[in-house]
Each structure stands twice: as structure tokens, then as C-alpha cells.
Design goal:
homotetramer, alpha+beta, Beta-lactamase, about 50% helix, globular, disordered C terminus
Chain lengths: ~375, ~375, ~375, ~375
């Protein structure tokens, strides 16, 4: 448990605070936190943890990590220069269980722009704040069968879903649209941090400026949507685009994103802080979106080979949600031809196969057997 | 158990056979079948059934059925005259649990052409017989974001998936392509019957002839595929199309299709005959296909509101698979604007909500609570 | 000739100036102008005029005009409110021969925004100033087979031609792009006036602001082009769009546009001022563009029924060029379903049939017979 | 005139017939034919010929021919094996004036399949026999902006025009559809021969069989059209396709096709036989079609650089019509990237530039000057 206390970010901070004598948290509260009915300690004692044997689980992750490290396939994205500066050897993973257990390997601390991984997160915040029906007045619910920046709308002249660029721009247009972008930006990053157990969220100004400069296609998409009657949720198209570019340029690392994923895996409640970030209903809707549309035009194949709600970003990250069990984030810049991290795909595929985590495996209840 | 013995088709036949004294099945075998470790009787005694309280479950189904009966929305398909003859009031449902329990309501015995519901079934037979990789040389794995007869191929010049017309025609072209269509037809119907617990499979000659006559778009799709180098699995395009039309014209009822669905729900093993029809791997692949592409361009919304692998046909049927639990089939001819049975959609939505059967509900393990 | 002196705008002004004694044009120059080898007086004496019997020609125009006046078909465009204010009864025509003869009927003095009719004019200025090859680095030469604001580029990722919105925006981007928009605007209007015999060119600020406000689709087109490598001629996309909206909002009337058309009919030399506005080569290229692409997706039918290089605008004007003979402009706001002025189409069709002006009629040299 | 008598096919035959004493054509008729008011002899005496100085004209053709011969660009089409057998060095031209003067160079006698060049010819026969309005119930009048076998219909679900495959297939479906294909084939070839001054028309069985075998895309196009209500003119789709393939496989040479072109140049009257093959109205409609759609997706550029109604075929021929003057046919198998004969394009471009034959040059009446 020493290791655990050291690595669990919330506990680490509290232990440190207590050790320094600077906090006045009553010892009683601390013990409640540690020893209440549903705490990790109690669960561990009764073997009720989502991942019953964490140590063996981490050993298996390490084995897979070493195998995947040698995969030199793919190429770093270069459409904006800053992304092209990434080292193709960077490779990090982080996992957080719904019981708050944490483990990481490799370059888990390197910061990278969140890019498309912000899309399902923004979507879940938007349906939480503005209602599912309102958001879907401006964005559909179907896979598009097209690449992420495809120039197409569905039969109702809406973007197919919130995980393609057009859809995410539409959601950027409606999310607290009455507020200035400064307040809107603060709102997103504050809540991203909440989802991530209170970890710090950064911003990459170079990426932001590059995104704006190379964003002609996204401009075109936004104006294209707005050219249909009632087709765009905001009168201020440039504002919506600017907000979209800002959110794409938020800096994260695999630790943060694994905590975020674990909150989705845990009904919308952050496993380490206990904060209720999203309603269970909206968590399910977001996972459904990620499952069908999260991996670009590889989503169908991904559903077969990995079978977990996941989202990929051009900077080379993939985060996955194992419902009721685990959040995972992988980062490695070289991308395969579908725009997904090559090592990320490789790692996720082996992980899911090893533990039988394909949703349809889980549904058939064979999943316990492998972990025990 | 009297009721059960009367309605379970396999048992009913065997009891009858035994009663008539015409069979020489030793009594010992009969008791083994009834009282072996995993039989329904034993499971029921130990409350280990997939649907623990079958009687209460059937009562709930009846309530929903009565509610949905009054839904007069939608319109009967008329693109082929024979379909237009269907009575818009017809409404039947059948359910079969993975333990072989059976229940039906309304017009469960009316025969109707299987139409598009044959697509995932043919697909599962094809990957079983010819291998997953071989089949996917000719058909993709991604949702298309388009209507079922859309005139489009993916970036590899293949149909997007096996649940759109183009994909099903391609699979019709490769399935035992070296055999004559007579043998190929027999093979499909024999195995459909196996999947359905040995029930009889019919054929609707009128529908077949109508399909051929009105099949210009399907002809166009087939030749369009074949116009790309190596784009079609068979040199005999007309033969492939003819086979496709034949399979669409197979006559079924909701009883048969509920048994079929239960076999998919039960790992590919028919719950009533114990016959191993499909490998577990291929069952999962088929369910994945149905989940992402089974409900035409309503598949994404369906995944949110029903959240179960399902397939719809233009004659007005929908069959659903609740993995590890249940097969369901609903039949009612009037279709909504997406081409799905209006009452079918309505019933399925209420059913899934009532029992928490959305896949993401199941994954979060809340599903037991409602049934108990 | 009295009538002629009164209506010929240049002569009218000069006669007036001379009469007022405020000009010092030597009488000798005046007589040179009136009696030189190629003047209208001399041509008329020797019956060498393009339209030999002008009086009879104008009588025929009047008859057709009266017939078309009763055509109450079509509807005024409303996509920007200012256009919707036009009176559906407005109907005016003006004609100017390559000998400078002028005639008009109805509302020839009403000002309206030039809209799409600026496209071929801007194109001819652009190829004149920047070269044919340079301009066609950014815009194609083929009909698009699509409506004017279609969202499509050709196989080289260029707009199909300079008469669809995307093409005109591209030309707006390259035309004297190093200058500020104020100078660029002055340049276009000055030269439009030159093409129109020195007539005044106006500007409609309300239309300009409305165009900008409703121009989402044009914004989308511009950014879409710019999203392809080397796809847009200017780095300043917003500037190009603003210039495009300005040019669409230039105010003209049928007199001005008939003079412009006559300059094109006269090898690029203004028949009344003698100013060389465009090279003959570029006049032919522009007429070729108008012939194949000038009437939106009715261009092919137009080529059959009218068969003259023409351009249509959403405000309800059509201007036509009868090479070596005549410029014509018709204005009447109600549009048919292809976006062409209903009365304009009607008038032009009757006019071309009456005089055998379809290009293929002219080529077969039957054209003289009808006019004599 | 000796040369002329020897080369003019009709005269040659008649002279031969007379010489053999096997015909009973009265000498009076012969002299009438030779010396009537509008005969070539009389016209030549009064210098009223379309090409006044035939000898100088032929010398210029010879010079251009020699220049173009060295152009080794392009590649022979190989999509059907028989076409791939063509010798890339083959190069022939034939010209026939509207006065019946004939000249040829190089491989003018080599037979090749007519392929797409049959499209405007079939179209003109169809509008002649069945009416312009009836034919255009099934095919549009607009350029498509797409390649010849593009998979697209216009907004009325019709092929864009009769010069793309889909349009030609539709016309093949309606042309004397009540007759058997044998009679239909005879009808087309008989009238093609009439258009060509009575010259023999062949058939290439190898090409026909190859076209059928590789015609999947054309099959797809036909069924696609037929899948729209009232979208195809014949209930017998396979029959229509078979007829289409037959017509594509008709064998011609440049002599025949130059005579055909001269008939179009001469108001629909064959210059050598005097037979009235087509109405003047339908000739103009066909030339309009060829002008806007004859050269695949190079038609717009062709209109600028050559500016004459032309049609191109994949076997490497181009035939051009100079209205009121000349028919031209060029044959050389290597094709450029647009599918037009490389040497054909080169020759036509030089020819039109040399004689100022661009339609817009002719319209501006500068054309006489060059020929005199």
C-alpha cells in the first residue's frame, strides 16, 4: 500500500498536507475516507475491486508495453509544424481503475495537445449543461462513414455526429454561447481538470496559432453549416471556430487523460475525488458516441478488434474506457494511415485481447475468468 | 412445467414421439436431457436462469405489447406489390431465452419474407465457412452513414459493410460460389432452420419474382462493384444477384426468428437443440455488425435508445439479441421513415428501457436489479 | 438622325456641351467624329450597318416586349431582403448595336445590383491584366453541371469555371491582389464604366451588407478552396470575399449593361467612345465562358434555345452578346426555377428565334436574310 | 479534275459503272449531276466553293500532318485487349468539304471501332425519328462536368446528356425500341452509311465481345437509371445495353467519318450523294451537343483552343464539323490523359488556329481572310 499511497495523486497530496501539518483536516475524516464502506482499502480486503489483482495486472501491462515499444510503424503528423516536432520514440501509458488505483509506464508525463480527444468530452459537458435534445438540434447521432474532416452533412443538413470536425465545431458554437470565450475556455479547462481528479490542464499557444493558420477547412465547414437555415447554433461563427481551435490546443498528458477516462468508467464520478462530474445518462451517451465514432473511419474495425469506447487524437493519443473497471490513456506520436497512434492501436488491441475486454466479450460474462 | 413442455418445440416433439411409442430413445437419455447439470430444470431449481422470473417477465411483455398495439403510425412498404398486401394491424412478438424458455403474443405465426434480416445471418455463415479475412476482402466493416441502398463504395472500392444491400450482394456472390444456386439455397435454409431450433423455413415465390423485377438498383450496385478491379467475389454477377433475391424471399415468422436470435444470444449454440451452429468468435463479429449497422441510417439513434444488436427488414420485422439472455423478434408491417417497423421500434425501445438492456447499462452491471 | 442624336449618350452629351459653349472641342474634330470613314453616318449611307434596318428592328423588339410583358411567371429572389423589395412588374430592355445605335423600352433606367453578371466581366479584366494562364492556375474552364453555389471542386481542386461562385471568389482573390480593396473597387468600377461607354456606375450599400450577412456559403467555399495546397490565389481570404461581395453590389441599369454587352460584341472596343477596353482574344475567351457557363444549370438548354453568349444575375437581369452585331440587356426581377429572369428568358428566346441569332444559325450563314 | 473524279467515291463508282456499261443511267442525268446550278464544277468556276483554294488548303494540311506525326505522346487504350493491339504509329486524316471535295493523308483506310463517336450520331437519328422532346424525357442537355463514365444523374434523375455513357445507353434503349436488335442494328448502320456518302460500314466482333465482357460499369449505369421511376426508356435493359455495345463496335475509317462530318457541316445533306439525312434543326442540335459535351471533361478547354463541334472516341479518333465548310476526321490510337487522341488533339488545335475556325472567330467574320 506504500506504493499506492505514493502514486494516488489525491492521497499523496493529502498525506503530504497532513505530514506538513498545514491542513486542519480532522483525522476522523481521513479515516472515514480510508475506511468507509466503499473505500479501496475495504474493497481490497474483500476482493471486491474492479481489477482484483492489481499487481499481476500491472505486470501484464508492462509485458505488453515492452512488446509494443519495438513497433516503429507510422509517421508523426505534420499538418501543423508543432506536431511534427514530436519525437517518434515517445511512448507512455497510464491506467486508473474505478477504485482509484493508478499505474503508468514510459513517457506518461510528456504534455501534448489534446486535439480531437476533446470532442467527446466537450460533447458530454454540452449535453450535461444544455440538454441532450438541444445539442442534437445541431448535430446528429450517426457514424458518418467518412474521414474526420469530410465535407458532408446528413439529410437534415447537420453534421453526422459530435466526433467529426463539423460536429465538434457546432458544439463549440453552442456551449455556453452567451459567455465570452475567456469564460468559456475557463469553464472547459476547469471541468476537464475535475474529470481528471484535479490535475493541472495546460495550453499550447504555438499549436493554437498553427491551428488557426491552417484551419481553412474548418472555416469552410463552419460557414457551410451556417449556410443552411437554422444550421448553426451561434450567430458568431468566427467565435465558435476560435473556441474550437482553443480547445484543440489544450495540453494534457496520459496521467490526466487516464483519470478522465476512469471518471467515465465510474458512472461520471471521479474515482479519486468522488466529485460527481456528469450524470450517468450522459456518460452512457458519450461512451456510445465514442464506441461508434471515436476512431475516425477505423471505428468499425476498432469495435471488432478492441471493442471499447475510445477516442483518438492527431497528436498520437488514444484514451479508452472499460466501463465499471478502468480508464486507459496511451500516447505515442507516430500515426497509422487512419490517423490513429500506431503504438496506441497496437497496445489497445493486445490489451483488449489479453483481458477479454471487447464489449461483446464482457456481455457474454467471460471477463471475470481472465483477471482472476 | 406443463406449459413449458407444451411450448418448447424440441421437447414437445420428443414427448409426442415418446408418447406415440414410435421412437426408441432410451428413457435414460431423456432424463439426462431433462436433469443434467446445465438443464433448464436444474437451473430453474437453483434460480440460475438468464431470466430468473419468467412469469413476471412475460407479464411485463404483455403490458408493453398492449400499449404498443395502439400505435397506428407508419406505412406498409409498397415497393413490391406483395409487401403492400400486408395488413397494417398485424403485430406479433416472440421471445426465447438462452435457457430455451419461449413466449409469444399476437400474430407470431404469420409468415413474412425475411428480407434484410437475412443479411447478418448470411454474413455469419460466410465468415464461418470461408473465414473472416476472406469475406472482408470484398466487404468493409464500417457503418456507411447512408441509407441501405446508397450508391457508394468505401475508399477501397468495397461496400461499407455486410448489412447494406451492396455488401449483402457481395457476400451472396462469395458464399459457396462454386456450388449451383439450388445447393446454395438449400445450404442457407438448412442452416437457418438449425439456428432456429429446427423450425421449418418457407419461401415466397411471389416476393422473389417481384424482387427480381424491381431489382434494378440492386443490379446497378452489383455491376458497379464488379466494375472495379477485383471488386466482386464472383464472376457470375447475375447468379449472385439471383441468390440474393432468393434469400430475401425466404419466409419466416417471429417464432423462428426469436429462436435464431436466441442462438446468437447463446454463444452460437441453439438453446433448445444444443446444436453448435456458429463459433463464438463469429457470433460476436455478427453482433458487432448488427449493433453498428443493423437499423439502416437509424443505427446510431438505435444504439442510444435501445442499445442492443438488432436487425430490421422491410417486411416489418426486427429481431434483437440480448447477449447471454434472450432472443426477441417483433413483426408489424407499418414502417417509420427510416424503414424500420413502427411498432417494432416502439416495442423494442420500451423493452430495453424497462429492463435496462442497453449495452452500456449492462456493462455498468445494473441490469440484474430490474429483473429480480 | 434627330432621335439618334438625342439618345446616343456620348453624342447627346457632346451636343449639349457644344450647345452650351462650355467646351472647346474644335468643330473639325466633331465632324471627323461624325463623318470619318467608319462612322455610323457613313456606314448608314452605304448600308453597311450591323443591323441594316434599325427602325424595323426596334419595331420588332417592341412587339416582343409587349408579348412578354404579360408573362407573370417566376418569383422575386428573397435570399437577401433588399432583392425581395423589387417590384415584380419591373421590366426593361436596352439594346446597343456595334455601330452605337441605341434603343430601350420600359424600366431601362431602374438601378439594380449587378450580382452574378459581374463574373464574366471581372474574369475578362483579370485575364487582360494578369494573363490567361495565371488566372487559370486558380480556376478551371469546364462547365460544372451543378448549380451556381455548388460545393464542389474539379479534379485539380479548382473551381470548375469563373462563372460559378467559387470561381468568381477565386478571381476576386487574385485581381490586383497587392492593392487595397478601395483601389481594387475603384479599378473595377472605372473599367466597367469604360466598357459601358462612360456611363455612371453605382453602389448599393444595403445589398452589400446583406450579402455579407448572408454569405456563409460563400465563406465556406472560400475556405474550402484555401484548404487545398496552393488552392487559393490570395493569403487574405476575408479580403477576397469582401471584394467579391462589393462587386456583386455594384448598381447598374439595362442601358449601362447593353453598352457593356455591345463592347464585347464589338471586339472589345466600345462602339460609342472608341475606347479599346479588352483585347479581342480575351473577348472571345469571355464569350466562350458565357456561352458554356453563363446561365447556371440551364446553360445547355439556353445554348439550344437562345444560342448566344449570355449571363444572368439573381436581381433579374440577363445580358446577351450577338457577336459583331449587338449588345442586349433585359431586366425583370421574377426568376424561374433555374434562377434566371422569367421575362428575360422569355424575351431572349423569342428574340433569338425571330432573328436567327442562335450561334449555329449564324454559322450556317442564314442570318442575314431575316434582318433585311 | 481527274484527281477529283478518281477520289470522289460516288463519282468514281458511277464513272466505273458507266465505263463497264452495266448501268443504264442516261448520260443526260450524268451531265445534270456534273453541271447543274449548284454542282462543284459550276461553283469552282465561279469561285463560290466553301474552301476556295483547295490545293493550297491541302498543302497546308500536309504541312501540319508532318509536324504532328512526330508527336509521340499519349498511350493506346488497353481497357479492352483488342484496342491495345493498335499500332501507336497509326495516323490518318480525311477531310471532305461541303462541296464534296475530298483529301486524305496517312492511314486513312485503317478500320477501327467507332466507340463513343457513335453517340452524337445515334442521338441525331433518335431526335429525327422520335422527336426532340421525347428523347429528352430520358436524357438532359447539360454538360456534366464529369468524366464520361461518371456515376451520376442530374436533378431529374436523368443522364446529363447524350454524350456520356449513361445518356447514350438511354438513347440506345429508346431508339426504335419496338424492333428486334437485328433490325435496329441494320437501321443504324444503313443510316451511318447514308451519312457517309454510301461508304461501307463494318463490325468488329472481337471488340463487341470484349465490350460486353468488360461492361460492368455500363451495366451498373443502366440499372441505376432504371431504378428511378420512369427513369429508363425501355423495359428491356439488357437489350438496350447489348445494342449500345453493338453500336460501339461498328468499324469505320477516317474517310467514312469525314464524309459523315461533312454531311453535318452541310445542313444534314450529304455533299456527294445529295441525300437529305437529317433535318437542319436536328443537325444544329447535334452540333450544339458536340460543342459542349463532345470531348469528355476537356470540352471546355477544347471550346477555347479548337472551338468546333467535335467528338472523340477511345479508339483514337476525333471527328470535327466546320459548319457550312468541312468535315474532318483524324485517327491515331495514343490517347492523352483526358482520353482524347493525342495526335488528334494536336492536329485539330493547329488546324483551327491556322484557319481561324474557332466558332467565335467565325462569328466575328474574320475567317474569310485566312483562306483567300
Amino acid at each position: 500500500m506504500g506504493l499506492f499511497l505514493n502514486r494516488h495523486p489525491l492521497l499523496k497530496q493529502q498525506v503530504k498536507t497532513l505530514a506538513n501539518g498545514v491542513a486542519d483536516i480532522p483525522w476522523k475524516n481521513f479515516f472515514d475516507m480510508m475506511l468507509g464502506d466503499e473505500t479501496i482499502l475495504v474493497k481490497a480486503l474483500f476482493n471486491k475491486l474492479a481489477i482484483p489483482n492489481w499487481k499481476r495486472f500491472c505486470e501484464t501491462l508492462t509485458t505488453i508495453f515492452e512488446q509494443v515499444k519495438d513497433n516503429k510503424g507510422g509517421a508523426v503528423a505534420t499538418y501543423i509544424p508543432e506536431l511534427g516536432c514530436a519525437d517518434p520514440d515517445w511512448f507512455g501509458i497510464s491506467v486508473v481503475s474505478v477504485d482509484g488505483q493508478y499505474f503508468s509506464l514510459g513517457d506518461s508525463g510528456i504534455e501534448y495537445p489534446i486535439e480531437s480527444c476533446m470532442k467527446p468530452i466537450l460533447y458530454s459537458m454540452a449535453i450535461e449543461d444544455h440538454g441532450y435534445d438541444y445539442v442534437h438540434k445541431y448535430v446528429g447521432k450517426e457514424p458518418s462513414g467518412r474521414i474526420f474532416n469530410a465535407f458532408t452533412l446528413n439529410d437534415d443538413n447537420l453534421p453526422h455526429n459530435a466526433c467529426i470536425n463539423a460536429g465538434a465545431i457546432a458544439v463549440s458554437g453552442l456551449f455556453h454561447k452567451e459567455d465570452p470565450n475567456s469564460a468559456r475556455f475557463k469553464e472547459f479547462t476547469r471541468r476537464l481538470s475535475d474529470l481528471g481528479g484535479g490535475m493541472k490542464v495546460g495550453f499550447n499557444q504555438t499549436v493554437y496559432l498553427s491551428e488557426k493558420e491552417t484551419g481553412n477547412r474548418n472555416h469552410a465547414l463552419a460557414y457551410f453549416m451556417a449556410s443552411h437555415p437554422e444550421g448553426f447554433p451561434s450567430v458568431n461563427i468566427e467565435n465558435a471556430l476560435d473556441y474550437y481551435f482553443q480547445l484543440c490546443s489544450v495540453d494534457v498528458n496520459t496521467d490526466l487523460m487516464a483519470y478522465v477516462a476512469s471518471t467515465y468508467a465510474n458512472y461520471g464520478v471521479c474515482p479519486t475525488t468522488g466529485a460527481k462530474c456528469l450524470s450517468f445518462e450522459n456518460v452512457k451517451r458519450t461512451l456510445q458516441l465514442m464506441f461508434s465514432c471515436g476512431m475516425y473511419d477505423y471505428s468499425g474495425e476498432w469495435a471488432c478488434t478492441v471493442g471499447l469506447p475510445s477516442k483518438s487524437g492527431v497528436s498520437g493519443e488514444i484514451f479508452l474506457v472499460v466501463p465499471d473497471s478502468l480508464g486507459v490513456c496511451i500516447y505515442s506520436p507516430p500515426l497509422d494511415k487512419h490517423g490513429n497512434s500506431e503504438r496506441g492501436r497496437d497496445f489497445a488491441t493486445r490489451l483488449a485481447a489479453e483481458f477479454g475486454w471487447n464489449i461483446f466479450d464482457i456481455l457474454f460474462q467471460q471477463y471475470d475468468k481472465k483477471l482472476l
